[in-house]
Amino acid sequence: MTEANTAPPMIRMVEVDKYFGPLHVLKNITLEVPRGQVVVVLGPSGSGKSTLCRAINRLEPINSGVIEVDGKPLPAEGRELAGLRADVGMVFQSFNLFAHKTIVDNVMLAPIKVRKMAKSDARRTAMELLERVGIANQAEKYPAQLSGGQQQRAAIARALAMKPKVMLFDEPTSALDPEMINEVLDVMTTLAEEGMTMLVVTHEMGFARNAANRVVFMSDGDIVEDATPQEFFTAPKSARAKDFLSKILTH
Amino acid sequence: MFDFLDPQEYDLLGAFWVTVQLTVYSAIGSLIWGTILVGMRVSPVPMMRGFASAYITLVRNTPLTVIIVACSLVLKDTLGFTIAGETVEDQNFWLAILGFVAYTSTFVCESLRAGINTVPVGQAEAARALGLGFNQVLGIVVLPQAFRSVVAPLSSVLIALTKNTTVASAIGVAEAAWLMKEMTENESDAILLVFAIFALGFVVLTLPTGLLLGWVSRKVAVKR
Ligand SMILES: Nc1ncnc2c1ncn2[C@@H]1O[C@H](COP(=O)(O)OP(=O)(O)OP(=O)(O)O)[C@@H](O)[C@H]1O
Ligand SMILES: [Mg+2]
């Protein structure tokens, strides 16, 4: 096969290093996520999962290495970077819906301002997406009027409205009350089944087992294991992963 | 003893009307220039940040009287710069507004910056993650929320501006304080009354502003 007819991986990180001051947070990370794959990133607190996630759309600049999305290296700050971010959906732990705008306006905003979509088209798409995540009846409310689970589903709809090539999730259910976790995981599972490329940082082992094609285990800024969920949960190789799993799975 | 209230003698309403005009034009200008300044202040471009903070430090620490007099003496008389107006009186009116805008905008900018700090960083991050550029993030997501949280401090700035417009009398703009000075000189037997009238006039201007904006402030507050 030649380079030309090989589709590039959706995400490619090569020898990425990231420091916060003296703290080495990402240590020579190399990772590829092929198109359509769902990768769950696991690891103890402070292991660099969020930083990895945020580096991919350059919310966190890196010190060295290469990051490519769909074959294109991350541009530096500016118009091109904004263009790349438009293709990469991101869902945050704290939802981050725009507090001064209604739910439907949250979803319509970027398609109108970034994709220059007509208002009426943007609204139609937004309502379809809100329907899909089950909160169309909340469209005219403000974020503070919704439950956490509803807000996170709205945030997913907002990201999907840009028709992203890949979706990044940074602990999307960690800020939620237990009874709301499943409504968000269901939306994510459906998205995974529809073939969306996803990188998901989560502590939800059920989601990792059922929806992920692959588990990446991080510890102290290293990728320690990279395996199928089956392999990872039944036969972890490293001591650190065994330790992590024993702590997670006992409760 | 109230015969000096005769509008033929002293144009009290006219003088306060000039005060109102000075305030309104200066407020609009300060809001615009203050918003641009805060945009520079938080800009990723170091030169813009440097310019904005140098400007603010310089202008804020210069007495307002010096700024207003400089607008007239330096800009107009020495450099021949005027904004509008045929008569000297008119030209000074607009130059006074220029001075008030230059000065008040620094307070608007600092209020807005405090407002920006009340907006959680996640709001800007979400906007950036969606592909919005710096100006869009600021203009669509951050500033609208910042403005809503600083209506009360901005109303204090506006009230201070209303009172500061009295400095325009230093360059002969016939606003309220200018008339007051004239009246205190000519009506020295009713001097307390003259002071009382002008004090009351300013209360009438500032009190409703404060009340109205206090109400607006509660109305537009962003719920999180
Ligand atoms: N902005 C920052 N400035 C300085 N240090 C930071 C910053 N953000 C994160 N860190 C540090 O970098 C390390 C990795 O942080 P990161 O948030 O990526 O971990 P994480 O795996 O996502 O943890 P958690 O499970 O708690 O979310 C931690 O030690 C953290 O304290
Ligand atoms: Mg994290």
TrEMBL record, chain A:
Q: Is Transcription included in the keywords of this UniProt record?
A: no
**InterPro entries per the record?**
AAA+_ATPase, ABC_ATPase_HisP-typ, ABC_transporter-like_ATP-bd, ABC_transporter-like_CS, MetN_ABC_transporter-like, P-loop_NTPase
User: Which top EC class applies here?
Assistant: translocase
Q: What is its EC number?
A: 7.4.2.1
Any GO molecular function: ATP binding
Family, as annotated:
Belongs to the ABC transporter superfamily.
Q: What is this protein called?
A: ABC-type polar-amino-acid transporter
UniProtKB/TrEMBL annotation, chain B:
Task: Identify the residues that the record assigns to the ABC transmembrane type-1 domain, covering every copy.
Answer: 16-213
- TM regions (residue ranges): 12-40, 52-75, 95-114, 190-216
What keyword terms does UniProt attach to this protein? Amino-acid transport, Cell membrane, Membrane, Transmembrane, Transmembrane helix, Transport
Q: Does the keyword Membrane apply?
A: yes
**Principal subcellular localisation of the protein:** membrane
Pfam families hit by this protein: BPD_transp_1
**Mind telling me what this protein is named?**
Glutamate ABC transporter permease
